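thread: overnight batch results

M.L. [08:02]
morning all. the overnight job finished for the chain we discussed friday. pasting input first so we're all looking at the same thing
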Amino acid sequence: MRHVEYIHYNPVEHGLVRSPCDWPYSSFHRYVKQGIYDSDWGAVVEMKFDAKVGYE
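M.L. [08:03]
and the structure it wrote out:
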């Protein structure tokens, strides 16, 4: 399973997409249909902070 996860996450790791779901050539879509993964698995979430954070 770790090898499969590596393959599914690889396009995200290399900055080609923000989520495995965004890569059209992946078997990831089949795994989502089978209920093995949620469609947002491995998605890069951009954190947004108030401009004051870090300047306390």
